[in-house]
Design brief:
Shape: globular
Helix content: 25-40%
Strand order of the largest sheet: 9-8-7-10-6-1-4-5-11
Largest sheet: 9 strands, mixed
Number of helices: 6
Radius of gyration: 21 Å
Length: 260
């Protein structure tokens, strides 16, 4: 009989994907005050996939736990995760400011390792990256710390009767299929699924689901940062293009620009 899944889904609160980021006045970070935030889109895919696993019932899903580490407003994305179908959530409050920045991928991976061990998880599904720092490191670091198998950039996830996970992942020029036994780390890519919208009844139900508040000290993790952002600049404005009349004109223009 397949082993029931005990899934951990980390979610991150980021600036909404539809908002154009602006550099703050000191040029040290992106301006976040008064800016709309939402759940990282790749993490929405992770929550959706965990809920679909429970709906398929093969293998059975025992529990879906959502976790977010960050300021108090991270509770909003955890409520959204529970409205989408997570059973409960944990908020690890980590005050952030422009000077100190947020937790780095290694710090997040160490925190998740402690949560996995304390909560008895056997599957972690997380976004391949967050759209604010685009690090694409946390899942791989967590797999290394735990000594578990991993599959990144998943576009399809399947299970068999021997507790093996088969993941189809996109690579340059095609797809690659990998297989690993549980426990396992999977990071999600955009073609995995299309996340559902949280309905109003489910949003109301989510308010009654358990949400535990913790601190880094509760997991024995220090808030140490190894990296310091020296300067943040907006990209230079793009120069306007120009039209040419014919091929000879194009060649002349390319020579003028030093392209050929």
């Amino acid at each position: 009989m397949p082993t029931p899944l005990r899934i951990l889904v980390p979610v991150k609160r980021v600036i909404d994907y539809a908002v154009k980021p602006r550099v703050n006045k000191s040029g040290t970070a992106i301006e976040t005050a008064g800016v709309k935030h939402s759940m990282n889109p790749f993490d929405e895919l992770s929550i959706e996939e965990a809920v679909r696993m429970r709906e398929r019932k093969k293998p059975p899903v025992e529990d879906i736990l959502a976790l977010s580490a960050g300021p108090a407003k991270c509770v909003d994305v955890l409520r959204t995760a529970m409205a989408m179908g997570a059973d409960r959530s944990i908020h690890v409050e980590v005050p952030t400011n422009d000077a100190a920045g947020e937790l780095e991928p290694l710090g997040v991976a160490k925190l998740l390792k402690k949560v996995v061990e304390e909560e008895g998880r056997n599957l972690v599904i997380l976004g391949k990256q967050s759209i604010d720092d685009d690090a694409n490191q946390t899942g791989q670091m967590l797999a290394g710390l735990l000594g578990w198998g991993q599959a990144t950039q998943a576009s399809k996830i399947e299970f068999d009767e021997q507790d093996r996970v088969t993941v189809t992942r996109e690579v340059d020029g095609g797809v690659e299929t990998v297989r690993s036994p549980l426990p396992m780390i999977v990071t999600t890519d955009l073609r995995l699924n299309e996340p559902r919208y949280a309905s109003l009844p489910n949003i109301m139900k989510a308010k009654k689901k358990p949400l535990a508040k913790k601190g880094l000290g509760d997991y024995g993790v220090e808030e140490s940062r190894r990296l310091k952002t020296l300067k943040v600049e907006e990209p230079p404005p793009r120069k306007g293009g120009s039209k040419v009349e014919d091929v000879d004109g194009m060649i002349s223009k390319l020579k003028e620009l030093g392209a050929i």
